[in-house]
Design a protein that fits this description.
disordered C terminus; 25 helices; 775 residues; alpha+beta; eight-stranded mixed barrel; elongated; five-stranded antiparallel beta sheet; single chain
Length: 775
Amino acid sequence: MNNIFHRLMRAVAACAACAALWGGAPVRAAGEHASGTVGVDLRDPMFWLIAFSLLGAVAMGLVLALVHSQRLRLRQRRSELLRVRRERSKLSALLNAIPDPVYFKDANGAYEGCNPAFERCTGLLEAQLLGRRDDQVEHRPAWSDALAGAGGATQRTLAWVTQPDGERACLDVAQALVFDEGLCLGQIGVARDVTALREVTTKLHRAVTVFEHCGEGIMMMDADLLIRDVNPALSAITGYACDELLGTMPNYLQLGEQGAELLKELWADVGAKGKWSGELVDRHKDGSCVPLWVTIVSVPAPEHGGEPHYLAVLTDISRIKQTEAELLHQKLHDRLTGLPNLALLRDRIERQVGLAQRDQTRVAVLYVDLDGFREVNDIAGHAAGDAVLKAAAARFVNVVRASDSVARVGADEFVIVLSGLVDEETAMRLGERLIDAMREPIFDGASDISKRFNLGASIGLALFPTDGVTVDDLLRNSEAAMVRAKVHARNSVQAYRPELTQAVKQRFELTHALRHANEAAQFRLEYQPQVRLSDGALIGAEALLRWRHPTRGPISPLEFIPLAEETGLIIPIGRWVLETACAQAARWQGVAGKPQQVAVNVSARQLRQADFIQTVDFILAETGCPAHALELEVTESLLLEDAEGAIELLGALKSRGVRVAIDDFGTGYSSLSYLRRMPVNTLKIDRSFVSELGQDANVAAIARTVIVLARSLHLDVLAEGVETAEQAAWLQREGCDWAQGWYYGRPMPAEDFVVIPQVLPAGPKLAVVKRLQLA
């Protein structure tokens, strides 16, 4: 300021001097020199007037200059403020337009501002946040402590928040401290909603996990069908490493491995539907073929103008193919013998018939049934039966040609199919060789010699086209011929004849009628008297089953009983007979002139039932029949099939008081060693011996021997089929205890039961050693 003042005074003095000179006034200074130079008279008032006028003018000019300068500065300041205001408006508009939440805090952590996105995210208005720290906010943000200890570096945090609408959102929050010349001015934070990105990332992670660990092979191919990516499962399927596959074309899409038509159809479906699925064959690295189930999907290009690519999913179906083959083999082959079953046999016969029609040749079908196989199962068990079946199958296969077929179609039934130049004579000779193959005993592998079995074979033959033109005709007719061989000439070959068809039809119809008869109560019991030969007294009756068909009339037991045995219907029928007979015996107890004991025939199938003893106990208790009033008749052949089991079974019956009789004694092969141990009460002489007593001395000798044997074993003897007085007298003389037959009465219904006393002709009589004692 001093410098300016001095400059100003000098300027004023100079101006005053100039004014004096200009006005003509003498101007002298106090120190005027003698040389006479002009000077300024400072004592002159005019001088000072002029000086101060000039000074005022200068001051005014300075003031005006200062005012002008200040106006310029104010204008510049206003322009700067306007620019700053515009910048702040732009910044505010930018923050408001940013869709991501943004906030500002001061150095103390108090909010200085935020954008609307932050308000929407947190549900707090800016006015509620200004001047407050996070700990003063009602709902403290999850990321608020992320900057602690960050040391000034930008900190990123993933935080889950609950938005005002209740939806959960994942925010990627970036926070940083703001410094100016080392001084912390505050902090700024920007959050981004990455919920959708997180979901996509999660799905991508799952997809990568599935891609890496999926058991199916997956490959990505470009538009040129070159492999761009594969998963480990595909390497396991093909045998190639991932690096070996990349950039190559897959084998299963090459013409060398697939047919042109298949590939054409494949790409046509991919082009039309965007997807194809089917079975293809790939080449493994070791050269083997791998069956695959392939799904190829066309994936559109991710951007406009790009090329599509292809996704292929490959499943190795080798095991499935193997399992299918095994299942098909099991479906078409017998599990035990490995031979074709009936389904495969029918197909082979049909194909052979087609070839025979074309070539004008014949087809022979031989139906084989093993004789005696049922006894193997019953006596030695099913394990031995299985061994016998496998051995028989092997023998049949060894007999026939490789072009012929051997199939197992039933438990012990086989079918052999011959084709080509074959006639009845040739087929009969083959049947004989099949029978010869069964002549050697079959050994089931056990050390016991009793495990060797002698079986035969009954064979029926039918020829195409003479005996049938369809598969069903050939099988049905060959079976009919086999049944004829089984019935009339076991261990032989019988050719089909037309009359056999009618017999088979009748057998089928009878079987159906037999099943219906048991349900429709068409059976009834008749009772034939059993008398004491010594005095003709009634001692009992045998219950005999009768069947009267509503249209066919009476059917002989000799016709339907064997059929019931074969079909298993004898079990329910036999139980009905036992229940009915026991109920009738209970009603007859204590009634004069009525049997006090009823004999009932039981079949082998009934006795083999595990609950037979319990069944007898239940029936006796249910009907009120005394045990001593029931006699069960069994065949001697049954007792010898399983002697020890029979002894135990009959012992259980005898312990209950039930009587046991051996029916048709002498017609089979008896074992005296077992007979003496059998807990039986009565031997029944078969009617075949009684009918020839007066005609054949040998028959009389056999009957006499049976009577003597019974006496030796302390058993009662009953003769069946006594029709004449002479037969009755002979039996009485020989010491027979009881008799039954038409001489004493025919079988009759229970309500008509009556016995007419018979008087025997006079003659020598043997002393009666023992008599039946009835309770």
